[in-house]
Amino acid sequence: MMVKNTVRSASDLDPTVPGKLLRLFFHDCFVEGCDASVLLQGNGTERSDPANKSLGGFSVIDSAKRVLEIFCPETVSCADILALAARDAVEFVRPNDAHIFFLTFIFAGGPNIQIPTGRKDGRNSTAVNVRPNIIDTSFTLDEMAKIFSAKGLSMDDLVILSGAHTIGRSHCSSFNDRFKLDSNGNLTLIDSSLDRQYAAQLTKMCPVGASDDSVTVNNDPGTPLQFDNQYYKVLLEHKGLFQSDSALLNDARTRNRVLEFANNQDSFFERWGVSFLKLSSIGVKTGDEGEIRQSFIPIE
């Protein structure tokens, strides 16, 4: 409950927190397993790799850890906190864009999932392990499936867990190679699977030549603060933000799942719970394989 309350408070202050926590958890589990190795700081750690420079949510995990160390010291690992925080991130009530007389609230929408605890924190964190183990936004379906398979995850898991993109924001550099503007402002689609009108909107949000990494765009242009099945509906409109998103619709091996989840949110939620449990179990360390850290101990 302490983790849940910490995530809730942080999400109330910053509605981008849930997306950050989910992404942080993915990047942790896909490299060295779900062992909080992504939290460790220092030269040559996972966190120092350029692919992880845009990760966020660290302060939320740190806050939860500080509270837990007060009430139950040396008991709950950072790895468990990461898993619980990512699980909780999709459940919460946050302010809607209310224009009338009072503030209304909406559910982020995700299912309540029971996940086991007992993970230990890993002792190894190496930047060289990051790139071969995480999904790039330009990946083909085969490239994504190869990495997922290496983690014990199926093609179905790939489609389901990609639904995490229903929340969160991304930097322009992760998708602006899908289109370009010439000197006269004419739009050319480099990736023809992207809706032209949507691409035109993206060019306005990501000006040509912009190098400011603070510019971000909602992954889901429809309901960016709700964990729902809108992501799959967006894919059907050819408005998946990443090339890796569009790949799910354009391949016969995954298209039917996209259609199913776009038409049935309950099915997506049910399958999300199963796939998230599998994700949270990747490479878990127990016993003498790991430790319970008291904080983010820097590695020098």
Task: Jot down its keywords.
single chain, 300 residues, mainly alpha, Peroxidase, domain 1, Peroxidase, domain 2, 2 domains, two-stranded antiparallel ribbon, 11 helices, 6 strands, globular, disulfide bond, iron, calcium, secreted, Secretory_peroxidase
Task: Give the helix/strand layout.
Blueprint lengths: L1 H12 L3 H13 L28 H14 L6 H12 L3 E3 L9 E3 L33 H10 L4 H7 L7 E3 L7 E3 L5 E3 L6 H10 L10 E3 L11 H7 L6 H8 L1 H12 L1 H15 L21
Antiparallel strand pairs: 1-2, 3-6, 4-5
Helix pairs in contact: 1-3, 1-4, 2-4, 3-4, 6-10, 8-10, 10-11
Please give a structural write-up.
The protein is mainly alpha-helical. The protein contains 11 helices and 6 strands. The protein has helices spanning 2-13, 17-29, 58-71, 78-89, 141-150, 155-161, 196-205, 230-236, 243-250, 252-263, 265-279; strands at residues 93-95, 105-107, 169-171, 179-181, 187-189, 216-218. The strands form 3 sheets. The protein has a two-stranded antiparallel sheet with strand order 1-2. Strands 3-6 form a two-stranded antiparallel sheet. The radius of gyration is 19 Å and the shape is globular. Its main location: secreted. Removal of H(2)O(2), oxidation of toxic reductants, biosynthesis and degradation of lignin, suberization, auxin catabolism, response to environmental stresses such as wounding, pathogen attack and oxidative stress.
